[in-house]
């Protein structure tokens, strides 16, 4: 890699290849012509593998050097984030992985079946089929007839371009501008940059006056188990199965949290929003040991400042016992809220079986 500041670990590269929905396979044909194909692939053991028809261009790459790659765009950074006139600062934050190796055909039927089953588990995780077994009558012929090929993950290069070549002031400006812009992926990009530079001062919207508390503007899906644990005794979830609730949280585009010095998640809140008319707030919770310390106010202020919430004309929620807390945040009862025009309405609900 030309610039060492962008180099990451091979483990991070493997993780990117494993979660990529598609990878690029580059090779040279027998005639010396370049070939580039996009394929579905799966990381299995110490290789990345894919399948295809036993004829065609991919066959020409067998036993030849190839390059496998995948990438993720983290955020696009327009020039005006950093300079009001010059176009030069425009850039893209991204991560990428490359594997250099030899494309080998998998001939062992059991190994082929494992690759095919792993592909199904990645791209059809809900199941709905009989597991692939090379000996089963449903699959024996298909397994024999398919091409399965793989490349060793011995040589993985991982690159992350997340502002390492920028000054501290520029990084903070980029974080603030991403928060202001609030396009799809911008909030996650903030979290990624903050994690990459733990020594970076917190941007204004993530600063917390409570000692030992760090706010986070995005709670990843793998962290939702912690959020569910915080909400275990919430009265509004008494009849909701735990897995249904985790799914509901995962489908919320707004998820904020707070952690203490040990790294424990101690506060959480989420919202749904159309970013124009209305946003609905759900699951505001603070660890019992930190209630009445200001953590709840901090998490609510972060949630209300979230781009998807602040752009909504109205922000709504329901509570049984925290009315005074929410009044201090600018909320009022629905009957007290001003309505445009002279129309009135009745709230209705349908319960699905």
From TrEMBL:
**What's a Gene Ontology MF term here?**
acyltransferase activity, transferring groups other than amino-acyl groups
Spell out the InterPro entries in the cross-references.
Acetyltransferase_Butenolide, Acyl_CoA_acyltransferase, GNAT_dom, Pyridox_Oxase-rel, Split_barrel_FMN-bd
What keywords appear on the UniProt entry? Transferase
The answer to whether keyword Transferase applies is: yes
Origin superkingdom: Bacteria
**Short name of any one Pfam family annotated for the protein:** Acetyltransf_1
Annotated N-acetyltransferase domain ranges read: 213-353
PROSITE patterns attached to this UniProt entry: GNAT
Protein name in the entry: Histone acetyltransferase HPA2
Species the sequence originates in: Labilithrix luteola
Its lineage opens with:
Bacteria, Pseudomonadati, Myxococcota, Polyangia, Polyangiales
């Amino acid at each position: 890699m030309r610039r060492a500041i962008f180099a990451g670990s091979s483990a991070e590269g493997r993780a990117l290849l494993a979660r990529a929905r598609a990878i690029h396979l580059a090779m040279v044909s027998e005639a010396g012509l370049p070939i580039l194909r996009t394929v579905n692939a799966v990381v299995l053991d110490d290789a990345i593998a894919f399948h295809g028809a036993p004829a065609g261009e991919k066959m020409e790459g067998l036993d030849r050097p190839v390059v496998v790659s995948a990438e993720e765009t983290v955020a696009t950074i327009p020039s005006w984030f950093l300079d009001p006139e010059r176009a030069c600062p425009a850039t893209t934050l991204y991560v990428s992985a490359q594997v250099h190796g030899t494309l080998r055909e998998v001939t062992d039927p059991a190994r082929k079946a494992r690759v095919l089953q792993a592909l199904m588990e990645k791209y059809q995780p809900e199941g709905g089929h009989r597991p692939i077994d090379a000996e089963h009558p449903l699959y024996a012929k298909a397994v024999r007839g398919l091409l399965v090929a793989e490349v060793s993950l011995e040589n993985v290069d991982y690159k992350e371009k997340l502002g390492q070549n920028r000054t501290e002031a520029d990084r903070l400006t980029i974080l603030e501008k991403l928060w202001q812009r609030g396009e799809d992926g911008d909030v996650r990009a903030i979290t990624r940059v903050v994690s990459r530079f733990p020594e970076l001062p917190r941007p204004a919207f993530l600063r917390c006056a409570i000692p030992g508390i760090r706010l986070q503007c995005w709670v990843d899906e793998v962290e939702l188990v912690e959020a569910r644990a915080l909400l275990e005794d919430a009265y509004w979830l008494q009849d909701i199965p735990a897995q249904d609730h985790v799914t509901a949280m995962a489908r919320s585009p707004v998820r904020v949290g707070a952690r203490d010095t040990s790294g424990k998640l101690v506060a959480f809140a989420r919202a749904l929003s159309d970013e124009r008319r209305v946003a609905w707030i759900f699951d505001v919770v603070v660890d019992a040991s930190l209630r009445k310390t200001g953590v709840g106010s901090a998490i609510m202020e972060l949630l209300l400042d979230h781009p998807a919430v602040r752009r909504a004309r109205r922000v709504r929620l329901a509570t049984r016992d925290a009315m005074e807390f929410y009044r201090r945040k600018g909320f009022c009862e629905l009957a007290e809220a001003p309505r445009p025009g002279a129309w009135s309405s009745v709230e209705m609900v349908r319960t699905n079986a």
